[in-house]
Amino acid sequence: MIGLILTGHGEYAVGVGHALEMIAGKQEAFKVVPFRESEPMETLENNLRLAMEELQGSTEGIVVYADLLGGSPFKAAMVASVDFKDVEVVVGTNLPMLIEIAMFREFASDAKAVVTQSLNAGKEGIQHVVFPAKVEQTIEDDEDGI
Known about the structure:
By secondary structure, this protein is an alpha/beta fold. Helix content is about 45%, strand content about 15%. The protein has five helices and four strands; from the N terminus they run βαβαβαβαα. Strands 2-1-3-4 form a four-stranded parallel beta sheet, sandwiched between helices.
């Protein structure tokens, strides 16, 4: 199984992680590492390293999902990942990608395969949905009144 770490600003990772488990069930080899405003960057890096250490022994790779390219959680994940083997980082995380990966990662060959599937599912999950134009319905008078 590929391990997952979810990180982001504020309560983003906590909320999305909770939504994932609400929809896809309790997740094994899954860690949530929030970046709280009151914590220094070093704390975030250390928390990510700890999560990676905990997952590394029991998984065939790790994918870290961060909320925003260039943000502190992304930077900390990149820095922490250098110290570990088979760790990939994905940014722009959305719930559709995580739901897809929750089911796919158990059978994935490696972390790179999870990244590829994540990117496809994430893109497919972003759509512009428009209500169809309302169709005017006319009620014709019927002799029966119905």
